[in-house]
Structure formats: structure tokens, C-alpha cells
Amino acid sequence: MSQEVARDAEARVSELARQIEDLAALCDRLRTENQSLRRQQESLSSERAQLIEKNEQARARVEAMISRLKAMENS
Fold first, then answer.
1. What residues in the chain have per-residue pLDDT under 50?
2. pLDDT per residue over 9-30, tens digit each?
3. CA of 3: how far to CAs of 9, 11, 13, 14, 40, in Å?
4. Among 31, 29, 50, which residue's Cα sits nearest to residue 39?
5. Which residue stretches of the chain are H helix?
6. CA 45, CA 48: separation in Å to the nearest integer?
7. What is the pLDDT of residue 13?
């Protein structure tokens, strides 16, 4: 009976060790994915800021053209 209990305990310890290894591997994968997503978020945020700036510049140019056209109409 003692050997059976020892084998059972050993099997449980082995299973727990395997689960811990799986969990550690999952943590590594999630850490890598998280880093990648953070880099992607930074890149997209930068791209968004650039697009907003270009949009503002285009809006200013259009408004300036409208003002010039109105001034030409009033002349």
C-alpha cells in the first residue's frame, strides 16, 4: 500500500510539475504578445497623431482658399 501511495504522490508531483511548466510557457508567450501589442499600439498612436496633423493642415489650407475666394468675390 505504501508503494502505491508513493507512486500516486509521484504521479501527482509529476503532473503538477508539467502544469507549472505549461503555465511558465504560457506566461512567456503572453509576455511576448503583450510587448508586441504595446509596440503596435505605440506605432498606431504615432500614425494617428500624424494623420490628425495632416488633417489640420489640410483644413487650414482649405479655409485659407475659401477666404481668398470670398475676398476675390468681394473685390
1. none
2. 999 999 999 999 999 999 999 9
3. 10, 12, 15, 16, 55
4. 31
5. 2-74
6. 5
7. 96
**Whole-number pLDDT of residue 1:** 66
Grid coordinates representing 28 are 512567456
The x, y and z cell numbers of residue 71, run together, are 475676398
Q: In this structure, which amino acid lies at residue 37?
A: L
Find the length of the chain. Answer: 75
The residue assigned the cell 503572453 is 30
Task: Report the pLDDT value the prediction gives residue 2, as an integer from 0 to 100.
Answer: 86
At 9, the amino acid letter reads A
Determine the Cα–Cα distance for residues 73 and 25; give it in Å rounded to an integer: 71
What cell numbers appear for 6 in the block? 508513493
Q: How far apart are CA 4 and CA 15, in angstroms?
A: 16
Identity of residue 39: R
